[in-house]
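Narrative summary of target 7.
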Amino acid sequence: MSVALFTLGGTISMAGNQRLTGGDLTAAMPGLSELGHPVEIQDIEKIPSANLTAAKILEVVDAASKAVAAGAAGAVVTQGTDTLEESAFLADLVWPHPQPLVFTGAMRNPTLAGPDGPANLLAALRVACSPAARDLGALVVFKDEIHAARWVRKTHSTSTATFVSPNTGPIGHVVEDRVGILTRPLRLDGVQGSAEPAELDNLKVALYTVTMDDDGLLLQGLADTHQGLVVAGYGVGHVPAALAPVLGDLAARIPVVLTSRTGAGSVVRNTYHSPGSETDLLQRGLIDGGFLDPYKARVLLRLLLATDDDLAAGFAQYA
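Modeled conformation, tokenized:
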């Protein structure tokens, strides 16, 4: 039984002015012969992940879906780390199979001393082949840690230990050639409808981070140009009092999701009651983003809008 590998470029494939293929990556990886599964490679793109689109990720997920339907034990996607957490979460929302779909990459390119790409790729392939990793949805494997796509964050601009799951920690580890799953998170329903990649790219959902003295001037006219908004508020979901009516007016026209800008934890629902508090904002029609960070909330909102799925039910899974 094979394992499918899809490459999208990124630091893991950067070698000066050249971009390595999947064949180059696997050839430079010690231990591949011990994997026990042939690797079937499809080189999709060779681009920085800052230029990836949701439509492109859906195309890759579709290709991975066809590979596992044809008998692959699992699939691995390599890409740049800048948008990897968003790509993995988008994939998790639409991945219907029990086989693992694993995302990985590198922080140190192959021309540097101690590149992390080969170790990350080998660990990802091991996870993709492992029966222990079935029924976990999309995963991120980095530095021998296994993270659930819905919890993982990129937290450092240069460290090879950049990917962490602040609220939960990793769900497993790769030790030697063994895949160990420490906890099995409940598989959520994700998004039930089907989104065309082109339709998703045409949907505009803004992400707005609240700052001190914010009066919402930049939000004027947003409902005329965008179909949704995610707000990254202070702490447990707060904004300046002057911003609350602006957000309430927007929520009457387009979906507005409330999240926290802190990087961990959730918004709350009924703890604070002053103007601009979470209670005030939810009463004005904002949607509770729960434990989702702002970036993942934007991914989910965009996909729900594209599929006409129920917004409240979609976000309630993460509250």
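The first helix runs from residue 22 to 27.
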